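User: Quick sanity check before I run a bigger batch. Here is a single chain. Can you write out its predicted 3D structure?
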Amino acid sequence: MDEKCFETLKTKASTLPERTAEQISKLIVEQHLTNEDKLPSEFELAELLNVGRGTIREGVKLLVARNVLEIRRGKGTYIAQNPGEVPDPLGFAYYPDQFQLALDLLEVRALVEPWVAKIAAERAGEEDLKQLRETCSVVEQDILGERDHSKSDILYHVAIAKCTQNLVVPKLIPIITYSISLFVSLTESRLKTETLIGHREILDAISGRDAERARRAMVQHIEYNRVMLEKVIEERAGS
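Assistant: Done. Predicted structure follows.
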């Protein structure tokens, strides 16, 4: 490791564990570490940063809480799959009216995801398309097997985002993924056939490099979701 990548910890105004966490984060970025890389031991980091092992532990705890690092039992501390991303970054779970939240999320998705599908069709590489096909197949298997398909559905939309080759788009995924899991929960997975058809149409359009068809397919997919959600809300109001 290059010790030049570390600044003198004492020059910072924040607490020592916070400064240590910052330096470990800098190490991750500058050394291009990924989720396959194990973080150096407490002893190694303590020697490198010239701090105590207790301070290293506190710094690591901060980074685990921020989903930058993850502790794998029996293996050690590794870089997280998507460093810095958390499941609910905007605190959606604390909104009192989850049905209205679901509608509002669909409104945002209707603006963003058709464009994402269009760009995906224009830029997807062969490996991206392979991953997209695989995730689409898993969703279909889950639905046909009458299993909860929310997690595989989320992975399908993540795969579409990655097809764009845009570094920012995947960072918008927590909004989309929360919307998907919330929708499936509120509608009790009632939109199975439409999901199968919609996902396959989007996949075929992106695979065929047909950007406009991909955009329209995503618009229709989200519209199916909106109509079903409104139907569920009406049923609740009438019960």
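Residues 211-238 form the longest helix (28 residues).

User: Great, the batch can go ahead then.
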